[in-house]
């Protein structure tokens, strides 16, 4: 098995299935603006780079003039509904308990406020040594500057840090930071895209980590 001293988790598509509430928020925003609904797969292809990029993408190039209004609509709606249909992926609680003695953090491109509402809602905030989201740092994945200060603070050798995520930004953050990556193939990003990035490890379900890392 592979030794790990720091476990870094993405949020959306890795720890939580937030797709239903993100889809609802996007289509609500479009409806208020008088735009037709988008299909689920198209919406989920917008996810991973933060709220600002999500709103930019849901508008399309021709409607960027509505960006500020769309942002207000989206943020207000999502803030009120982000736990309506979002769920923890199976085995999350079990994995967090199994690795309770390991340093664990969340790094996400989701706004920190939204992230904390979700982790607080599922009562898993206390399982992590830190939670990093947009607004809590000037950087975002895959910029190494979001992670390197944490490695230094915890005294972690990058060789023994692993990020678990379903996004392109997770794999690229690992490459930029000198840590290992484990692609979660059952999340939001098509598996062929993740595997093309040549992550160090890959798995379908979180429960597989028990036999991969110690």
Write structural notes for this entry.
The protein has helices at residues 19-32, 40-44, 51-59, 67-81, 92-98, 112-121, 148-154, 168-177, 191-196; strands at residues 6-9, 16-17, 87-88, 103-111, 130-134, 161-165, 180-184, 201-203. The protein has 214 residues and is α/β, with parallel strands linked by helices. The protein folds into two domains: 6-17 and 87-211, HAD superfamily/HAD-like (Rossmann fold); 19-81, DNA polymerase, domain 1 (Orthogonal Bundle), CATH 1.10.150. The longest helix has 15 residues, at 67-81. It starts with 5 loop residues before the first strand and ends in an 11-residue tail after the last strand. The relative contact order is 0.19. The model has no long low-confidence stretch (mean pLDDT 96).
Q: In terms of topology, how is this protein built?
A:
Layout: E1 6-9, E2 16-17, H1 19-32, H2 40-44, H3 51-59, H4 67-81, E3 87-88, H5 92-98, E4 103-111, H6 112-121, E5 130-134, H7 148-154, E6 161-165, H8 168-177, E7 180-184, H9 191-196, E8 201-203
